[in-house]
Amino acid sequence: MTAVAERPSAASAVKRPEPPKPPLANYLGLVVIAMAAFAFFWWTREDTSVLFLPLGFITLWAPQWPLIGFLTMLAVLALCWFTRTSPMAAFGALSVVVFSYWAGSNIYFIDRIIDVPSRLTGGNTRDQLIGYFNPDWSYLLFSNVAGTSRPIWGEWLITLCMAVVATIIGCFIGLLLAMLASPVSSFNKATSQTVKAVNSVVRSIPDVGWALLFAAFIGGTAYGLGALAAVLALIMFNIGIVAKLLGESIDAVNPGPLEAADATGANLLQRDRVAVLPAVMPSFVSYSLYVFELNIRASAALGVVGVAGIGGELSRQIGRMSQGYENVGAILWALVLVVLLVDLLSMWIRRKLL
Amino acid sequence: MSYGYKISAGVVGSVLVAALAFLMTYTSVAEASEVFRRMMWGLAVAATVVVVAVAVYGLAYLGTARQRAEAQQRLDSGRTGYAPDRLDMRPVKPSKFWYNMALIFVGVLFVGSAAGTGMSLSALLEMPARMWDYTVQMIAGVAQIPDEEARGDWSNAFDAMLESVAIAWIGTIVGALFSLPCGILAARNMTPLAIYLPMRFILSVIRAVPEIVFAVAIFIPLLGVGPAQMGGAMAGAFALGISSIGTLSKLISEAIEGVDPGPLEASRASGATHTQMIRWAVLPQVLPEVLAIWLYRFEVNIRASAILGALGAGGIGRLISPPNGLFGQRPYDWEAIGITLFVIIAITIVVDQISGFVRHRVIHGKTVKQKKRRKDDSDPKVAAVPV
User: Fold this and answer.
1) Which CATH architecture has domain A137-353?
2) A75-89: per-residue pLDDT in tens?
3) CA dist B327 → A56, A74, A212, B317 (Å)
4) Does A336 reach chain B within 8 Å, measured CB to CB?
């Protein structure tokens, strides 16, 4: 056989082919980038305002030990060089290191880690942890919200109700927007681009931001108003998520039924109704259930900004400091339980439907 | 082909639901909780509406009794006259009974819970005027030439938002470090069942715990609360990191389970150990996808860090949330709020775009450039022109 005859002899087979070395010039460029980052970190190593924009001072927080960061960067580059990584991947690794270094020093990573043992021995950390892990269940089941005759478990009901209302309204508006946002089902390119841009703005404001905004727009967070603010905030939150995810699934819809609908002379609405909607219905249901789970989690946190539901009670108990640890623990454990139950429920529905 | 029993079952069932809900409003549970009482009232009203609707439908159905009888007779009588047999009939529509029931259920649930939240919808009437007023003030705040105060606002907003980005980044790094091993251990084709099952269980527990629980119960006591110097930012970062392990590992394990088995078999056949197999056969296949998953989680974490900030972990949430933040002051400083929202939107969108670009590049490679080159090849005249 020719293939066997052409096989190289054993002596030359020992010598393995070497992977090509990456170009040195690119790596030198990366070293220059590392030096620039080092210069930047050195310049900002103290907590000073360094970058003056016409808008105002922007404080770029100082890494405490710029030299260590520089050595780390060089080490990463050397490692990449010896493992023959391509310059682009090496650039990725370098930027990850630089960005982590900046972020870590920005939030005092090392200081806080070093501080943990002393916090554990002194201060009220132990009390807090003990309180959280010994929840006071009788508070959760039998107490009322302070100063009212509303029981705590009723707050859970409000939270669930808010999540249900927000999910149903938000998902339907989200469905409409997703239809408009995808070029497959939208009127024209301009509409879909506009809707996409609006949607990315809606999505980029966090749910806490929406809750605070709506609380201000409504004019207070009294009992009925707080629930309204929370529901409106959750609706905006849901619209963002559903329109994004569902818009992407509409983009990826099977073109066959679309062409069939076009060929039979369907107009846009008819085409969306018979070709697009049935195709994305399973993912719509699945996203709605996902969003419902998110809403339960989010509404617990939204209470912090003063809206109704269990979150309001949670933030009140957190505000009570040392008297409230067991109660906070009870609410948090119950939150885990409720989220788990909702997870199981939605998994069951998903399996039934899809 | 008779719907009679279904309709009567619907009527009876919803009458029962309505009656039950109505009776529930007189129990001691309803006396204890306003919410529960309102929910039950909502349920009773909604179920009554359903009763009426289904009853109307049933009456209409009864009205067609004669026609149905005639049709049945025609079918039964065989040859006399035109009697369509099964081949002549249009295909039978699949039953929509459960679909309709599900819709009715969702409607009833909606009415019941809308009543249960106790929203005072009258406030919606005044909202548009206020909204317009405040929005104009916010836009004016963003569009003005910044004076001393506005500069302070811009600077605060940038600081807090960059801190949020830092929190999200460190959270993602923490999550990424843990999630790759966890993902490998939770992939069925990589691990024996004895490790796989407990790993799956641990991951689903982590996924079920909301990140505010991690933040409040574990990391704020351990790492501190408040501004970054006091450790609030670190608490937020670790809460995000630990809670993202669950989702990240699940996605990564799914990616690993969907890997092409060819290289695995080849490496096993050439005598690779398990570690070598993972290094040379699995990682090269899944790494682009894993990177994309991590970057996606970074985007999610930026948004999530805001809500943790409201609880005392640092970042943009601390800047905006009461009692000390922008929304805690009265009267509201709408110009500062507008500037802050603008910064939030701008930085979030910029980070999304960058991360989306990198994700696309990592997954699809240099598709854009290749397309251009192909065009050049097909048209030598264009290629001759220096671009």
Assistant:
1) Orthogonal Bundle (1.10)
2) 989 998 888 888 888
3) 22, 45, 7, 11
4) yes
